[in-house]
């Protein structure tokens, strides 16, 4: 039976008009520059609009709220990451056995959370369900569910995939790193132990 595959998430967006695409590019570039210059806490929709040379209404119509805008800034690297785990080299991509792929995927997610923690924190603090509304979470969950179904066909793979993603909520990750002083290596080792229990 052929392995199921998942498409790279595109947020379900229809093709954009040229002017809308240009506005999106300017807004995201302005937001990224403001974050780099002054930190994620300083980001405001009004300031992004001024820096991008568009009306603030355009920013709100395009992104809705600050959390959605922050996730859109993260999106460029996200697409590369999705392409890697869906079609890149093993063990992150296809070709390795399911346990090895799950482990590589979770370790890669730890690295991404470490790298973009400030952005993820701001997005999740602005909206309680931002993490779940953002399209990549659903893709992660589906990806893990497919792999877990191969390893544990008797288990509730959809529930287990949510359980494996839960430790990477930005506020918990920050607490482990900054308050409890856990290293990235320790978090990955913890994931290995958790995975061993989940996959039997």
Automatic annotation (TrEMBL):
Residues 44-63 bind DNA. It comes from the Bacteria. GO terms for molecular function: DNA-binding transcription factor activity; transcription cis-regulatory region binding. Residues 21-81 form the HTH tetR-type domain. The keyword Cell inner membrane does not apply. The keyword Methyltransferase does not apply. It holds the Pfam family TetR_N. This is TetR/AcrR family transcriptional regulator. It comes from Streptomyces coryli. The lineage of its organism: Bacteria, Bacillati, Actinomycetota, Actinomycetes, Kitasatosporales.
């Amino acid at each position: 039976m052929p392995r199921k595959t998942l498409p790279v998430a595109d947020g379900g967006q229809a093709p954009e008009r040229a002017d809308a695409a240009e506005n999106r590019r300017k807004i995201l570039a302005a937001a990224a520059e403001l974050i780099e210059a002054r930190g994620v806490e300083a980001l405001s929709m009004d300031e992004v609009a001024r820096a991008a040379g568009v009306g603030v209404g355009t920013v709100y119509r395009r992104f809705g709220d600050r959390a959605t805008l922050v996730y859109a800034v993260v999106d460029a690297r996200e697409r590369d990451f999705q392409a890697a785990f869906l079609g890149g080299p093993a063990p992150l991509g296809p070709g390795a056995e399911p346990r090895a792929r799950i482990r590589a995927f979770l370790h890669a997610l730890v690295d991404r959370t470490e790298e973009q923690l400030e952005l993820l924190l701001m997005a999740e603090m602005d909206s309680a369900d931002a993490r779940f509304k953002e399209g990549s979470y659903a893709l992660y969950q589906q990806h893990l569910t497919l792999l877990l179904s191969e390893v544990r066909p008797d288990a509730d793979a959809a529930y287990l995939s949510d359980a494996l993603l839960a430790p990477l909520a930005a506020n918990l990750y920050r607490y482990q790193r900054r308050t409890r002083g856990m290293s990235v290596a320790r978090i990955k080792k913890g994931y290995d132990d958790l995975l061993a229990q989940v996959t039997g």
